[in-house]
């Protein structure tokens, strides 16, 4: 029973991080129909920028704000400079470009910050709460992680539902040509979509870094696999789907890890991906009837 | 429908001129500046020697036409005549290889697509361009975004024009019928407060009764609010019944420009180009 409780808690927490990462993928997929394979590397880069500030004596919060701002700028610049020329072209071109970005950014991190593992100190205590003699897999820091993901999800939903910019972004995503004819500056909305996604990706990087405590330039690589599976599970189009998909995947993988063995986690994620694509290719929360790719 | 009234006098005045322009434009292949003082003053949109191509295929070949203030101009022709390309080139979705587009006296040939609506022109694309994932209300709001804050009374006015879509305002647009979609996109275009409305095949796939309803409404807006309409239609009979001026397009060239009633009465022309 205690094991089950802790596996569930652990699943929810890793699931929340998957969800944040999946949200970033969904934001970009919605606006430009591109799966951003460079998302992990972009998040790693901003996390390393924050880490070097923190190591230099700044507080975690200064590092967090700088990481998010850096994400905003990097996302916007990448869209304008690298992605814009391949937008609307063959899908494969964009995929190759994001894969190339992934390798280039990872190399850049190694050049700037070195390839060694570095300690990342969590902003809150990572010692679990106690219920009697039993230590829960729930600490002040994991509560912060959960709260941050929840806040981002609510914020993004509110942005899309209730604001003019959100409406313009949705219009650009779903009907690019019509939106342009109606005077929406679609190019700006796409840039904004990438910038927002990179902010969320940076947040995911900061959260996962605090969970794993040691970071190397490749520390986000595993996350892109799980984040992608979570996004597909949620339908790739839906922010809420991404969060639910992330939580479900986190739980499923946590049970696999606890009851079946750590070595099966990667395989289990693949099984989930294949089953979803076979049984419900539109995902659990897809807003469109059919989806290409 | 009131289309027979009011249009005849103005139509007759402008007719001889327009016909002459079209003839010269086709003959020389260069753009023609309309000579008549009255017609020039009234043109909301004037297209001069416009050409466009998809790769080696020439879709528009020196098209010269004008849309006049407070009138409905119908561009007619068979499939592949270049009607849709004409509208897409006017609004900048397709870049012309030659020619000019002048809107309210301003050369907008190279203006970005997004800017056209701020210059007073709304383009309703073919295939009823609703954004299917958004609700009816959200679709309307997208149409007013560029103007900043827009009062609820303007939305109410659109809903008054089209009570059918008012009932569906909270539903996602992909649940609408074809007629409701057409009403939605026209309503959405009107929220931009255009001086000129470009309509691409509004009758496509709609029941005749709905077509008549939509055309009657257009006529009313033109007559009472001074809206100008450039209408592209394959359904020549319906279009000519509502339009003031007809322009017949064939293989990317203007064949004839004339008063709509006279066009409808010209049997040879009808048989040759309009199929009725």
TrEMBL record, chain A:
<dbReference type="GO" id="GO:0006865">
    <property type="term" value="P:amino acid transport"/>
</dbReference>
<feature type="transmembrane region" description="Helical">
    <location>
        <begin position="6"/>
        <end position="27"/>
    </location>
</feature>
<dbReference type="InterPro" id="IPR052157">
    <property type="entry name" value="BCAA_transport_permease"/>
</dbReference>
<keyword id="KW-0812">Transmembrane</keyword>
<dbReference type="Pfam" id="PF02653">
    <property type="entry name" value="BPD_transp_2"/>
</dbReference>
<keyword id="KW-1003">Cell membrane</keyword>
<keyword id="KW-0029">Amino-acid transport</keyword>
<feature type="transmembrane region" description="Helical">
    <location>
        <begin position="94"/>
        <end position="115"/>
    </location>
</feature>
<feature type="transmembrane region" description="Helical">
    <location>
        <begin position="264"/>
        <end position="285"/>
    </location>
</feature>
<dbReference type="GO" id="GO:0005886">
    <property type="term" value="C:plasma membrane"/>
</dbReference>
<comment type="similarity">
    <text>Belongs to the binding-protein-dependent transport system permease family. LivHM subfamily.</text>
</comment>
<dbReference type="InterPro" id="IPR001851">
    <property type="entry name" value="ABC_transp_permease"/>
</dbReference>
<feature type="transmembrane region" description="Helical">
    <location>
        <begin position="60"/>
        <end position="82"/>
    </location>
</feature>
<protein>
    <submittedName>
        <fullName>Amino acid/amide ABC transporter membrane protein 1, HAAT family</fullName>
    </submittedName>
</protein>
<feature type="transmembrane region" description="Helical">
    <location>
        <begin position="214"/>
        <end position="233"/>
    </location>
</feature>
<dbReference type="GO" id="GO:0022857">
    <property type="term" value="F:transmembrane transporter activity"/>
</dbReference>
<feature type="transmembrane region" description="Helical">
    <location>
        <begin position="34"/>
        <end position="54"/>
    </location>
</feature>
<keyword id="KW-0813">Transport</keyword>
<keyword id="KW-1133">Transmembrane helix</keyword>
<feature type="transmembrane region" description="Helical">
    <location>
        <begin position="189"/>
        <end position="208"/>
    </location>
</feature>
<feature type="transmembrane region" description="Helical">
    <location>
        <begin position="143"/>
        <end position="162"/>
    </location>
</feature>
<keyword id="KW-0472">Membrane</keyword>
UniProtKB/TrEMBL annotation, chain B:
<dbReference type="InterPro" id="IPR027417">
    <property type="entry name" value="P-loop_NTPase"/>
</dbReference>
<keyword id="KW-0067">ATP-binding</keyword>
<keyword id="KW-0029">Amino-acid transport</keyword>
<feature type="domain" description="ABC transporter">
    <location>
        <begin position="45"/>
        <end position="276"/>
    </location>
</feature>
<feature type="region of interest" description="Disordered">
    <location>
        <begin position="1"/>
        <end position="29"/>
    </location>
</feature>
<keyword id="KW-0813">Transport</keyword>
<feature type="compositionally biased region" description="Low complexity">
    <location>
        <begin position="1"/>
        <end position="16"/>
    </location>
</feature>
<keyword id="KW-0547">Nucleotide-binding</keyword>
<dbReference type="InterPro" id="IPR017871">
    <property type="entry name" value="ABC_transporter-like_CS"/>
</dbReference>
<dbReference type="InterPro" id="IPR003593">
    <property type="entry name" value="AAA+_ATPase"/>
</dbReference>
<dbReference type="InterPro" id="IPR003439">
    <property type="entry name" value="ABC_transporter-like_ATP-bd"/>
</dbReference>
<protein>
    <submittedName>
        <fullName>Branched-chain amino acid transport system ATP-binding protein</fullName>
    </submittedName>
</protein>
<dbReference type="GO" id="GO:0015658">
    <property type="term" value="F:branched-chain amino acid transmembrane transporter activity"/>
</dbReference>
<dbReference type="InterPro" id="IPR052156">
    <property type="entry name" value="BCAA_Transport_ATP-bd_LivF"/>
</dbReference>
<dbReference type="GO" id="GO:0016887">
    <property type="term" value="F:ATP hydrolysis activity"/>
</dbReference>
<dbReference type="Pfam" id="PF00005">
    <property type="entry name" value="ABC_tran"/>
</dbReference>
<dbReference type="GO" id="GO:0015807">
    <property type="term" value="P:L-amino acid transport"/>
</dbReference>
<comment type="similarity">
    <text>Belongs to the ABC transporter superfamily.</text>
</comment>
<dbReference type="GO" id="GO:0005524">
    <property type="term" value="F:ATP binding"/>
</dbReference>
């Amino acid at each position: 029973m205690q094991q089950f409780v802790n596996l569930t808690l652990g699943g929810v927490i890793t699931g929340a991080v998957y969800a944040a990462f999946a949200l970033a993928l969904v934001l970009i997929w919605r606006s430009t129909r591109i799966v951003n394979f460079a998302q992990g590397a972009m998040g790693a880069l901003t996390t390393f920028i924050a880490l070097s500030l923190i190591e230099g004596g700044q507080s975690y919060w200064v590092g967090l704000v700088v990481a998010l701002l850096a994400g905003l700028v990097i996302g916007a610049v990448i869209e304008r400079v690298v992605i814009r020329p391949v937008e609307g072209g063959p899908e494969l071109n964009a995929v190759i470009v994001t894969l190339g970005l992934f390798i280039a950014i990872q190399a850049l991190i190694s050049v700037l910050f070195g390839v060694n593992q570095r300690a990342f100190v969590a902003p809150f205590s990572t010692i679990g709460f106690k219920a009697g003699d039993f230590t829960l897999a729930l600490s002040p820091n994991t509560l912060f992680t959960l709260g941050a993901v929840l806040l981002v999800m609510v914020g993004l939903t509110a942005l899309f539902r209730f604001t003019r910019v959100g409406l313009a972004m949705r219009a650009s995503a779903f009907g690019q040509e019509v939106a342009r004819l109606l005077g929406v500056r679609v190019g700006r909305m796409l840039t904004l979509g990438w910038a927002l996604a990179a902010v969320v990706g940076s947040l995911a990087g900061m959260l996962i870094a605090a969970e794993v405590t040691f970071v190397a330039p490749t520390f986000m690589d595993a996350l892109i696999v799980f984040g992608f599976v979570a996004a597909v599970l949620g339908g790739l189009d839906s922010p809420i789907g991404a969060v639910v998909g992330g939580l479900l995947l986190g739980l499923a993988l946590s049970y696999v890890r606890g009851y079946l063995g750590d070595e099966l986690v990667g395989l289990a994620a693949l099984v989930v991906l294949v089953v979803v694509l076979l049984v419900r290719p539109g995902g659990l929360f897809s807003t469109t009837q059919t989806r290409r790719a | 429908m009131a289309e027979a009234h009011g249009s005849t006098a103005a139509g007759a005045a402008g007719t001889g001129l327009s016909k002459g322009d079209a003839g010269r434009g086709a003959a020389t292949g260069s753009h023609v500046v309309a000579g008549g003082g009255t017609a020039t003053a009234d043109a909301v949109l004037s297209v001069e020697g416009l050409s466009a191509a998809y790769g080696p295929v020439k879709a528009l070949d020196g098209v010269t036409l004008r849309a006049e203030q407070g009138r409905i101009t119908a561009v007619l022709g068979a499939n592949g005549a270049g009607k849709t390309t004409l509208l897409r080139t006017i609004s900048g979705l397709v870049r012309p290889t030659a020619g000019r587009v002048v809107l309210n006296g301003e050369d907008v040939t190279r203006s970005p697509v997004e800017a056209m609506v701020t210059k007073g022109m709304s383009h309703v694309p073919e295939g009823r361009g609703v954004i299917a994932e958004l609700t009816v209300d959200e679709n309307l709001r997208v149409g007013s975004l560029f103007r900043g804050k827009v009062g609820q009374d303007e939305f109410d006015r659109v809903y008054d024009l089209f009570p059918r879509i008012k009932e569906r305002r909270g539903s996602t647009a992909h649940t609408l019928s074809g007629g409701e979609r057409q009403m939605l996109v026209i309503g959405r275009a009107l929220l931009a407060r255009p001086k000129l409305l470009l309509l691409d095949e509004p009758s496509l796939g709609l029941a005749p009764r709905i077509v008549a309803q939509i055309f009657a409404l257009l006529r009313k807006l033109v007559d009472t609010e001074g809206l100008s309409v450039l209408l592209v239609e394959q359904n020549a009979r319906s279009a000519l019944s509502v339009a003031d001026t007809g322009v017949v397009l064939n293989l990317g060239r203007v064949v004839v420009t004339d008063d709509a009633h006279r066009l409808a009465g010209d049997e040879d022309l009808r048989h040759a180009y309009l199929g009725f």
